């Protein structure tokens, strides 16, 4: 029973990782462009513990993530109910994934990486990675990724310091509450 709950929770959270194939969920109007930004394009290292609230339709789940990024690599571990479902490492050339056996094959680390980079990387690095027809619009409250006059991905800073990521192409929301980890706190 616990394994089934873990499976469902990570399926819902990591649907943010997208579906197999072209990167869009079935029936989506558009596939979001991959970012795959160099870790070194982030101006300062990150070390964050994150509480994630994921919503897909009427389903909502809570997860914990540990995120580290420096000039050499981006590293992420997502846990549900005390078990690690996925670990990602991106060095700017290759994405390595360690996945729990119960994690569905449709979960894509590439989408998770792109969402992280959309939220945290500088606007110039994101804009430079976009293919023709895609635009990054930035405001004091956040940023939007648009194509053909529609917003497909957006990030908004919330009053409480959290960040809300809405993926309109794949139909999910992710609320991210981050706490900075000190050097001694990082496992």
UniProtKB/TrEMBL annotation:
**InterPro entries recorded:** DUF3261 (IPR021675)
State the source organism's domain of life: Bacteria
Signal sequence span is 1-20
Q: Which UniProt keywords apply?
A: Signal
Q: Does the keyword field hold Signal?
A: yes
Q: Which Pfam families match?
A: DUF3261
Q: What is this protein called?
A: DUF3261 domain-containing protein
